[in-house]
């Protein structure tokens, strides 16, 4: 089989993060790369079909005939899993919500829907991928909040020696100074605390709430 203008090509990403070539719903894995050419062979170990592309991923030729049928459903499922995994890593959205949104968005065939792994089956892999991208628990009181969570929350933790008025004043003085160093204004929309009369008095002076 030689390549022709009607060949439908695209790329998918394997579970190990490797780029796989899709030609007419047959999956090829990269075998080697030279200074000018990429060499692929069919993912099925029993199949001898090979393909060549240039370094810009333009198909040069496809040689041989497949000994197995194409796998459009497998490619749909892999594409779905890839999209869900990317979102799970890059977003803080709940994984079940991501799964449901992408399942509703993608146009799956009946066979693909039947073979599609459930959210529970994918959950362990997706949670592991997300954990690998999550910063470790800090071992000091000074740490950076990952950019992913900037829109979710910003926290200030203060361990105070007592509940006296001058202590609270000093705390808010430091918060205002720190905000100024960051070219920001310390003006929180909400402050939550146990009922503390002295703190309430200071808040009226130091913070516009």
Percent of residues in helices comes to 25-40%
User: Helix-strand pattern, N to C?
Assistant: EEEEEEHHHHHH
Find the count of extended strands (DSSP E, 2+ residues).
Answer: 6
* Uncertain segments: none
Structural class: alpha+beta
Description:
The chain has 6 helices and 6 strands. It is of the alpha+beta class. It folds into 3 domains: 9-63, N-terminal domain of TfIIb; 72-133, no CATH class; 156-206, no CATH class. Strands 1-2-3-4-5-6 form a 6-stranded antiparallel sheet, covered by helices on one side. Strand 5 (50-54) and strand 6 form a beta hairpin. Helix 1 packs antiparallel against helix 2 (95-105). The model has no long low-confidence stretch (mean pLDDT 81).
Compose a concise summary of this entry.
The chain is 37% helix and 16% strand. It has 209 residues and is an alpha+beta fold. The chain is elongated and about 85 Å long.
Task: Describe the secondary structure blueprint for this structure.
Elements: E1 9-13, E2 19-23, E3 26-33, E4 37-42, E5 50-54, E6 59-63, H1 72-90, H2 95-105, H3 110-115, H4 119-133, H5 165-181, H6 197-206
Antiparallel strand pairs: 1-2, 2-3, 3-4, 4-5, 5-6
Helix pairs in contact: 1-2, 1-4, 2-4, 5-6
Characteristic terms for this protein:
N-terminal domain of TfIIb; alpha+beta; 16% strand; 6 helices; 209 residues; single chain
């Amino acid at each position: 089989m030689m390549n022709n203008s009607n060949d439908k090509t695209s790329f998918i990403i394997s579970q190990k993060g490797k780029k796989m070539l899709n030609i007419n719903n047959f999956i090829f894995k990269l075998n080697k790369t030279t200074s000018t050419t990429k060499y692929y062979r069919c993912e099925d170990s029993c199949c001898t079909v090979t393909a060549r592309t240039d370094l810009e991923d333009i198909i040069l030729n496809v040689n041989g005939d497949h000994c197995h049928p194409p796998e459009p459903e497998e490619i749909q499922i892999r594409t779905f899993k890839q999209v869900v995994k990317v979102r799970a890593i890059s977003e803080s959205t709940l994984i079940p919500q991501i799964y449901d949104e992408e399942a509703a968005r993608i146009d799956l065939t009946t066979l693909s829907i039947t073979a599609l792994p459930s959210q529970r089956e994918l959950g362990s892999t997706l949670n592991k991928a997300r954990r690998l991208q999550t910063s470790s628990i800090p071992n000091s009181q000074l740490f950076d909040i990952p950019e992913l969570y900037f829109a979710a929350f910003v926290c200030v933790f203060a361990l105070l020696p007592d509940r006296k008025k001058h202590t609270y004043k000093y705390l808010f003085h430091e918060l205002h100074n720190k905000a100024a160093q960051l070219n920001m204004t310390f003006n929180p929309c909400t402050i939550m605390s146990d009922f503390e009369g002295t703190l309430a008095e200071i808040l009226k002076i130091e913070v516009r709430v």
